[in-house]
Amino acid sequence: MEGSVSNLEVCNFAYAGKFDQLKQCILSDKSLATKTDQDHRTALHWACSAGHTDIVQFLLNFGVEVNLKDDACWTPLHIAASAGRDEIVRALISKGAELNPVNQNGCTPLHYAASKDRYEIALMLLENGADPNVTDKLDSTPLHRASAKGNYRLIQLLLKQSASTNIQDSQGNTALHLACDEERVEAAKLLVEHGASIYIENKEEKTPLQMAKGSLGTILKRIVEG
Question: Which end of the chain is more exposed for a tag (fewer CB within 10 A), N or C?
Answer without folding.
Answer: C
